[in-house]
Write a structure and sequence with these properties.
2 helices
Length: 58
Amino acid sequence: MRRGARLRAAGVVVAELERPFIAFYESLGARTQDEWTVYRLAEGAPARLGAAGDRVGT
């Protein structure tokens, strides 16, 4: 970010069980974004993804 630039927006990720943090960010004006869904790859999925990439274009 260049010197003197203004930050217009920022995002944070907070676990739903972290109510004090949620309250803090909401006190700053943060709101939830229901249009976003978080996905987490299960154990082993990154390796399978890498293996699938090896087959691309063959």
